[in-house]
Every structure is written in C-alpha cells, then in structure tokens.
Design goal:
The chain is of the alpha/beta class. The chain has helices at 24-34, 43-51, 59-78, 101-117, 121-132, 149-173, 178-190, 195-207, 211-228, 235-245, 269-281, 295-304, 324-331, 348-356, 372-385, 421-426, 428-440, 481-487, 495-506, 519-522, 531-538, 542-549; strands spanning 2-4, 10-12, 18-19, 40-42, 84-87, 90-93, 256-257, 284-288, 310-314, 361-366, 389-395, 405-408. It starts with a strand and ends in a 7-residue tail after the last helix.
C-alpha cells in the first residue's frame, strides 16, 4: 500500500489503484499520521492539528471516531490488518516511510543534493528527477483547511523548489541547458525573488546562446530587489552576471562530445542492455572483437545513455601511442599540452592528469588495437590519479589493465538455413546487411519491404512438402593414401622455424604499425626479433607461408 501526500490525499493498493478514504476530516487524519509514518503521534498533537484553537467539546471522543472511520476505510481498501495502531498516548500508521510519497521525496532530494555537492551530476539528475516525479500537484491539496496543513505544505513546497534548483544545476553541469530553461522561466515568474533560480536561469540562457535574455533577466531581478526590498543582488547573482559579461560560463560548452551516428542501430539491443549497467559501475570496460563487428557503434549507443560528461576519442589516426594524451586533450577542448605552463607539470600526460583529476567523465577510446600498449599504460595512470574518470575502450584485444572488465562483441546472428523466409529476413545480420545495402543503392530493399507474395515461389514460406526419393550422388573412386601423400604440399621450412611462424600468426598484434597487413608484414612483429621469422619465411615457399599465416587475410 502507498499513500499520496504531495498532491490530493489518496491511498493506493499494491497494484497502484486508489480506493476511497472518506471525508475531509478522515483524509486530514491520514495525512497527519502519514507524515510521521512508523512513529507514534500523540493524541493532544493530533487534536491540535485537526481542530486547531476551536476543538469540539469532547475532542478525545471526536478523534477516536475519526480513527475508527480511517481504520474501516483502510480495511475495506486492502483487506489487511490494522494499519492504524494505538501506541502509548497516541496513534501510529504502521507502514514503511518509503510508502509515503512525501517522505520518499525528501530522502531522494537529500541524496540528489549530496550528489550535486560531490559533483556526481549524472546520479544527481537521476535522483532528483525521480523525486520530482512523485509530485501530482500542490502538497496536501484537498486538506488545506486543516490547521496543520498550511505549515506542512509550505515546507514541502520549499523542498520541491530547492530540488528543482538542484536539478537545474546538475543539468547545466552535464551540458543540457535547453532542458532547464523552460521550467526555470516558470519558476522565476512564479517566485521572482528566488535569486538562485534566477542565477541558474541566466546561466542556462547564456549556455543556450541567448546572452541578451540572460542579461535582461539580471536587470529585472536587480530592479525588483531594489524596488521591493531595497537590497542589492546576492553574491551568487552577481557572480553569474560577471561570468556572462566575461564569457566565462562553464555551462556554455556542451559536455557531451559524441559524434552523430550516420547509421541506424541494428541487432545489438541485448548487448546494449547488458553493457549500459556495466559502464555505469565499472571504471574500465573494453569492447573486444574482430574488425567490423560493431564495437564502435555499440560504444556510442552506450555513451549516449550516460548522464554526465562524455567524450569520444578516435585512436585510429594516431601513428604513435605517445600522441594519445594530446588526442584526449584535443577531444576535451583543451589547449596544446606540449607547451608547459610556468610552474606546471613538465610532461604531457601529467598535465592531462591535472585536467581530469576533479572531473567526472566517461572517456570513450575507440580503435586502440594498434597503440594498445601506450593506451593501456595511459589508461592505468589516469584511472589511478582521477577518481571520477571512467573509460570505455574498443579494441581487437584487451588492454590488460588491472580492474579491466572485458565485453566481447560477437558477430550478429543469422537464422538457420532451413528456417522460414520471414525468420531469415528478421535475423539481425540480414537486417543490418539489407539496411547498409539500401543506403548504398536505392534499388536494394530492406527486409521490411519483403513479403511472401513478392518472394520467388521456390522460397515462399508455406507448408512443408513431402520429401522425394533420395538422390544418389555419382560414385567417386576411392582416394588412395599414396595419392594423398603425393599431393601433400611440401615445405622447405624446417619444423622449428615453422613453429615460429605459427606462433607469429596466433600472437596478439600489440605492436603493429597499421591495422591490416600482409603475412610478410605480420612476421616483422613476432617474438625473437624480426630476423627469426624473416629468415624462416625467406627459405620457405609462398604457399607454405600463406598456409601457416592464414592465407594472407587480415586479422588471421
């Protein structure tokens, strides 16, 4: 059972359906008990809160009568035991405080404010939106005539306004000014003397590119304070005004630096559902898999779900992993870190640490495989020095950093070949191929455009036909072992050097110059230096080398 206080008073069953409680006195009694759920409220206090300075002649009997009506209404609504219990010198509503929306709102709002103070703005947004979503209207809306209701409603309303200001501050910190300008404008219009709300509105307007309106809002607030209160603007309002004049408002720059995907997100909903909570709780997550499996697209989709600052860094253009720190700084909008400021750290990575040390951030490092050693070392250093940093990397192999959580990205599945045509067309791999092909050629149709009527008769789904007589394959002469031995390709590569080539072929390429190489180039980065595989390759036939290294295909 749940009880609604922030709005009209109501009681709801476990399935969320409300049920009638009674008249105004019974609803006021329920509100008074619910605001102190789980605790005993004295009879004298209840009499004062319900009847004020003019109680009835027999106030104790009148209170007991209202309690009996409330108990009967609750029993009829949920069919449970006594929820209103007598205890000591008063009564107690025997429910969990979380069952009362006003108390749950207070707890969530307090946690949201603490998250704002800790600069965990993504968590603050989630908590405060959940808290404000509990409000269904003015607090104690239908029992405002009760003597206790005015003071309690005023305190709840003030808490709601403070929560809205906290939510606006968090939204500006994560780069979402357009989300707050609307309700902050309404809040300032209704409460023109709330200086914090006006300062946040000014910052939001400036961040949304409306500088003139931000300055006009300050002038309106300054005149209003002078005319009605004879006071000057607060320090917070003056700071916001000066920041706008100096173009030094941090919220003016969007904190969600993600490239816009040019293709649709197909076939990875299950992986995204598993990846999103993993990214939220882990410091380092690496998406691994062969090239072309969709690691980058999955990382972008996961990053778009994160509340807070997100930055995407493309590692593929880097020739050397030493440039990784400067690439991250460039993506964050920072200046050239190669020029050392007076008194600052000497090396580029140390200056990047200074930039990120107090910054809650999700950093997406894409295509790390060709500079994986340098990226792994830099990631380890940043994670140790920057407690608010999280990293989501994509690579063909793991970074092998302490605390890393691997997330293999498999190939998109296809339907069995003997399944119906509709099932084959609905397979994620087929849908992805059809959509990408349709983007290249207008003559290609996506699976949604297919229908059984338009399919060839031999491929239309329908009832299974009775199998015909088995067809006999032409009889083949038996293969003689001697012929097999005669046809087996011989290699001039000695067994020990052939083993070296096999080791090179299956060893992770953690130090290769490019993303795709021929087998000959691949042997340059094997164990034991380049002379061992090069000498072995030079004495063997090209067919033997290709047989060992996978036929010359990239990534084998």
């Amino acid at each position: 059972m749940e009880f609604g206080i922030v709005g009209p008073i109501e009681a709801r069953r476990a399935d969320g359906s409300p049920f009638p409680i009674g008249g105004p006195q019974v609803r006021a009694l329920l509100a008074a008990l619910a605001l102190d759920a789980g605790r005993v409220v004295g009879r004298k206090r209840l009499i004062d809160e319900l009847y004020g300075e003019q109680p009835p002649g027999d106030a104790g009997h009148a209170l007991q009568s209202q309690v009996s009506r409330l108990r009967r209404a609750l029993r009829n609504g949920v069919g449970e035991g006594e929820l209103v219990q007598s205890g000591g010198a008063g009564y107690r509503l025997a429910v969990d405080p979380e069952a009362v929306d006003a108390l749950r709102f207070g707890r969530l709002a307090a946690r949201g404010r603490k998250a704002v103070q800790d600069k965990d703005f993504g968590a603050a947004m989630t908590l405060l939106e959940e808290a404000l979503g509990l409000w269904r209207g003015p607090a104690l809306a239908d029992v405002r005539d009760a003597p206790f209701a005015q003071g309690r409603a005023a305190r709840l309303t003030e808490a709601r306004l403070a929560a809205e200001e906290d939510r606006a501050e968090a939204a500006l910190a994560v780069g979402e000014p357009l989300a707050v300008v609307g309700y902050l404008s309404e809040l300032v219009a209704a409460q023109p003397l709330r200086e914090r709300a006006r300062a946040l509105l000014m910052r939001g307007l400036y961040a949304a590119g409306r500088q003139a309106e931000a300055l006009e809002s300050f002038e309106q607030g300054r005149r209003l304070l002078a005319d009605e209160l004879g006071a000057d603007p607060s320090a917070e309002l003056m700071d916001a005004h000066l920041a706008i004049l100096r173009a030094d408002v941090g919220a003016a720059v969007s904190n969600r630096r993600l490239p816009t995907p040019l293709t649709s997100f197909v076939g990875r909903d299950a992986e995204l559902a598993r990846l999103a909570p993993l990214v939220a709780r882990a410091r380092l997550v690496t998406l691994t898999g062969p090239g072309g499996t969709g690691k980058t697209r999955l990382a972008l989709a996961a990053g778009s779900r994160v509340r807070g600052e997100v930055c995407f860094v493309e590692m593929a253009p880097l020739v050397d992993g030493v440039q990784a720190a400067q690439a991250i700084a460039n993506a964050l909008g920072g200046r050239d870190l190669s020029a050392r400021a007076a008194g600052g750290p000497r090396d580029t990575e140390s200056r990047l640490v200074v930039m990120l040390v107090d910054r809650p951030l999700l950093l997406i490092l894409d295509n790390c495989e060709h500079v994986v050693l340098d990226v792994a070392r830099l990631a380890h250093r940043l994670l140790v020095a920057c407690p608010g940093l999280r990293i989501l990397a994509t690579s063909r192999e793991a970074l092998r950093v302490t605390g890393e959580m691997l997330f293999p990205v498999p190939q998109l599945p296809t339907a069995p070949t003997d399944s119906a045509l509709a099932d084959q067309l609905a397979a994620p791999a087929v849908r992805l191929f059809a959509e990408r092909a349709a983007a290249v050629s207008l003559r290609t149709r996506a699976p949604s455009a297919w229908s059984p009527a338009s399919a060839p008769a031999s491929t239309r789904p329908g009832p299974a036909r009775a199998p015909g007589p088995p067809r006999r394959r032409p009889r083949q002469p038996p293969i003689r072992p001697a012929l097999v031995r005669r046809r087996r390709p011989r290699s001039r590569c000695p067994p020990d050097r052939r083993a070296s080539l096999v080791l090179v072929a299956h060893r992770p390429l953690r130090r290769r110059p490019g993303r795709r190489q021929s087998p000959a180039t691949r042997t340059e980065f094997g164990p034991g230096g380049s002379h061992v595989p090069r000498r072995a390759a030079g004495r063997s036939r090209r067919r033997a080398v290709r047989g060992v290294c996978g036929g010359g295909r990239a990534g084998t």
